[in-house]
Amino acid sequence: MDKYRLVNKFKLISSLFIILILTTGMSNQKDSFNGKIFKNIYIEQVHIGKMKLDEAKKAVDKKYLLKPIYIKYEDKTWCINPQDIDLSYNIDDAIKNAYIYTRSDSKIENIKRKCNLDLNKAYSIKLNATYNESKLSEQLSYIQNDINKKVQQATLEISDSGQMITTPSKEGLEVDIASLKEQIYDMIKNKDIKNINLPVKVIQPTITTQQVKSINTVLGQFSTSFNEHSARGSNIYVAGKSTSDILIMPGDTFSYNKATGARTWSNGYKTAKVIVGGKYVNGEGGGVCQVSTTIYNAALMSGLEIQEVHNHTYPSHYVSKGRDAAVSYGYTDFKFKNNFAHPIYIKNIVSNGAITSKIYGCSQDREKLYIRTQEIREKDKIIVKTYRVFLGEENNKIREELVSENKYKIK
């Protein structure tokens, strides 16, 4: 037991002796570091040990100089000054922290820190880069306003006489704002300001001049007649206009209901006879089925892919059986797909009690074909199958497809 106490007493005396030596050493250094930062202290990569505060600031400012950000694009250059975005590396705070690192309220802690620094254990302080995100976004918005240009799609307008007027497409420009901000963030974070080449995205038009100019002929057309001096006739005019002058790109689908919208009074439709539950009743939009039927037959004759078509409950008076396209907003639609390599254009001409639907397209997509129907009568209904027959160069049949199977009630 006496041996154990002797060891502990020796350790205590040794510790006190070491503290006494360190304290004496520190007090001897007091004058040498008076008003100066203690040795082996760094701010980022700059050693500021043994420097006065103003000396340390000059050294750090020289290494981490706040510089303008120059952004270049072709012959244009924009400058974002540090004060424009409140950019700061908080160098003053970092130097203050370096100075008080060995001058804390705890003398024991100060001794430990000085001891570590004396033993070449460096202490590094990071600069805290700050900026105003809102002000940066405002500066970048000026650049966007200078550069961004909306893409212009090519347009086509075909008159009733068939005259074609086109406007060319133009590429759009758009600053890649995400990429630009990321570059600026990295420079600020790394405190390494450099010139930036403005990242700009070129936006290609989805409808090009070449595409609209490929439309050079009528692929198919169809006409039906009606009494224009009636509510039904008025509805045909409205529906004919809303489904006309529509460009359909390759692979896209035309929806009759989408083109017309709801057949309501607010959309210009009047009350006229419609078939509901197999009976003729007054309803908004009566007559719109004649427009869908006319377009349907033009699409049939053009060789377009019919995706959805429905027949009426009873045969229609304005078209032969198997060739009608009944529609009801929100229930049944008429749809076809542009299965060609070029765009097509729907043109409806409504005049003098007749509606003619023409589908324009590229002559390369035109096919020889005709429509045939097969009619079977049963007790209380008529079944009509509608076929499309495609012909070769010498008018020989190449292929035949069943387009629809229609069932009509017999009145």
From TrEMBL:
Residues 78-192 form the YoaR-like putative peptidoglycan binding domain. This is VanW-like protein. It comes from Romboutsia ilealis. The lineage of its organism: Bacteria, Bacillati, Bacillota, Clostridia, Peptostreptococcales.
